[in-house]
Amino acid sequence: MENSWKNIKENPNLRQIFEKRARIIAAIREFFVQENFLEVETPTLVPSPDPSPFNEVFKIEGKNLYLIPSPEFSLKKLLAAGLKNIYQITKAYRDWQEDDPLHLSEFTILEWYRTGADYTDLMVDCENLVNFIFKKTKNTLCPPKKTKINFQGKEIDLTPPWTRISCKEAFKKYANVSLDEFLELKNAREICRTKGYQVNKKNSWEELYHQVFLNEVEPKLPQDKPLILYDYPAPLAALSQIKKTNPKYAERFEFYIGGLELGNGYSELTDFQEQEKRLKEDIKIRRLKGMKVFDYDHEFIEALRSGLPKTAGIAVGVDRLVMLFTNISNIHEVAPLCQ
Amino acid sequence: MGTITTSDLKKGLCILFRETPHIVVDKTFVSPGKGSAFFRTKLKNLKTGNVLEFTFKSGEKLEEVPLEVRELQYLYQDGTNLYFLNPQTYEQLSLEKEMAGDFLKLMKEGETYQVYILENQAIALRPPLKVFLKVVRAEPGAKGNTVTGATKEVEVETGYKLQTPLFIKEGDTIAINVESGQYVERVQG
Questions:
Q1: What's the pLDDT score for residue B48?
Q2: What integer pLDDT is reported at residue B140 of this predicted model?
Q3: Among residues 48-107 of chain B, which lie with CB inside 8 Å of chain A?
Q4: Which of B11, B57, B145 is most worth mutating to test chain A (most A CB atoms within 10 A of its CB)?
Q5: How far is residue A264's CA from residue A255's CA, in Å, rounded to a whole number?
Q6: Relative to the CA of A89, which of A110, A298, B2, B91 has its CA 20 to 30 Å away?
Q7: What is the C-alpha separation between A315 and A299, in angstroms, rounded?
Q8: Where are the domains of chain B?
Q9: A259 sits in which H/E element
Q10: What mean pLDDT value characterizes chain B?
Q11: pLDDT value of position A164
């Protein structure tokens, strides 16, 4: 259906989406109040957004300002300034080149940062938050007896603990690939070629990894319970810390419910030199790919240099939470009027 | 045959995949968290009718198989095949039922549909975005039934049943989205 106001007018059912969204956001706030978190607001217009080469940003015409692809840098500045346990619900923007059912150019993101914690604490936060939302938004006329939801024909039991599987275990189990070996670009190319994928010299390690992941691993991940996929290979560390016990992997996880990826969390990288190196690298890749190029956020590096406390942080797509709790498979349908 | 890349991929295109012609029945853009762009496709094997999923890296090169599209009139079906008439040549062509997939439930005898032709054989259907069908059975709208949402089940002339708003009545013509199988709008009443 088209995303127009006329549709909402003609179809009273669509109002339920607004009601559900409002209840989900109210539940998120109630949860974080209980957890003693402080809600903060940070700018959506910044001179130096996150330069991740996987998300193109929108530039404000005639000004040196960009719409944020995520509020992460500003939130970390607040942590460096001494604020503890903070969260934000904000609009963020990414310029997708193609239309697809899981991404909006303008979307609502929830981020929270737990100080003194690591990524395993965040996994528990995710379990608790989703169960809290379930409890607060369930149909009061005929309340379900069990903590189960139906999403796209799948019944999912939300009861903690959720299924936890490391990237290494998942690759072994579902693609019969040793991720330790695959980590070498040379081996990755060889393994992909043997499996019948197209491989050329321009392909990055990340592309080869994701081609195997998307074709052979992700579709087979169990969906009877929410799933936490953790310990990402170090080249996909993004803004997370490398594991001290095994530098081939990073303290990063994503969680899926009913096959829908909902959040991405880290034990946050606090080393300012490593962070600066990764930002410069990202900008170099942006330039090579012909994407928008800007200076990296020196203030962010300065903040990290002054000292970021041990922190774990995560971003969760609020629109995707709405999809989950309304059983709608297309993100555009849960964000009426949005692009 | 011509070489194309993933950015040219679109529904209805026929490509050579693992040395067999496949029709692209679905294509979505996939962007893994902190990863490059990919294209997830559903490909229908034109020899077996099987549909498989494959995710291409953005920029992969593919071979396109040129297919002809003809407007044919759907005549009737038997246990295994659908039969079509080419109104220009009066030639009759058959297509295995399986190749119509889910669209079969929305097909009406006498209607004209687009059919893919390879070497003068009908090999697949190219379903329209929506179809217009007459409602043959509809219960009167119940009032105050807000628990299940303000919809009801109706049956259209092909025997397919779907949920519509309460104001739809017998004799109405409604538009149905072919891909989702869901109600779009009332066309005339």
A1: 79
A2: 78
A3: 53-55, 57, 59-61
A4: B57
A5: 7
A6: A298
A7: 22
A8: 2-64, 68-126, 130-188
A9: none
A10: 89
A11: 98
Write down the pLDDT at residue A1: 46
CB atoms closer than 10 angstroms to residue A303: 20
pLDDT digits (tens, 9 = 90+) for A230-269: 999 999 998 999 999 999 999 999 999 999 999 999 999 9
How far apart are alpha carbons A278 and A52 in whole angstroms? Answer: 9
What CATH code is assigned to B2-64? Answer: 2.30.30.30
Predicted confidence at residue A167, as pLDDT, reads 98
Fold agreement (B2-64, B130-188): no
Nearest chain B residue to A260, by CA: B32
Model confidence at B144: pLDDT above 80 = no
Write the class of the CATH domain A5-161+274-334. Answer: alpha beta
> So where are chain A's domains?
5-161+274-334
Each residue of A45-104: pLDDT tens digit? 999 999 999 999 999 999 999 999 999 999 999 999 999 999 999 999 999 988 889 999
DSSP 8-state secondary structure symbol assigned to residue A140: S
CA distances from A180 to A146, A171, A185, B33, B66 (A): 40, 10, 11, 21, 43
> A214, B18: Cβ pair inside 8 Å?
no
The identity of residue A166, as a single letter, is S
Distance CA(B100)–CA(B44), nearest Å, equals: 11
Q: Read out DSSP for B93-129?
A: EEEEGGGGGGGGGG--TT-EEEEEEETTEEEEEE--S
Listed as own residue / partner, the contacts of A184-192 with beta carbons closer than 8 Å and 24 or more positions apart are none
Range in B40-44, B149-153, B160-164 the model is least confident about: B149-153
Most confident of A136-150, A300-314, B2-16, B42-56: A300-314
Measured CA to CA, the distance from residue A118 to residue A266 in angstroms comes to: 7
Nearest to B31 among A54, A206, A254 (CB): A54
Residues 6+ apart with CB under 8 A from B113: B71, B72, B74, B84, B107, B125, B126, B127, B128
Q: Which tokens sit at A105?
A: 């150019």
**Listed residue (A114, A102, A141) closest to A31, CA to CA:** A114
pLDDT above 60: residue B168: yes
Say which amino acid occupies A2.
Answer: E
Residues 113-172 on B with a CB inside 8 Å of A are 147, 149-151, 165
Q: What is the ipTM of this complex?
A: 0.87
- CATH assignment of B68-126, among 3.30.43.10, 3.20.20.140, 3.40.50.2300, 2.40.50.140: 2.40.50.140
Strand ranges in B119-159 using DSSP code E only, listed in sequence order: 121-126, 130-138, 151-156
DSSP state of B76: E
Contacts of A100 in chain B (CB under 8 A): 28-31
Q: Which fold has domain B130-188?
A: OB fold (Dihydrolipoamide Acetyltransferase, E2P) (2.40.50)
- Nearest by Cα to B106 from B175, B56, B37, B178: B178
**C-alpha span between A193 and B172 (Å, rounded):** 56
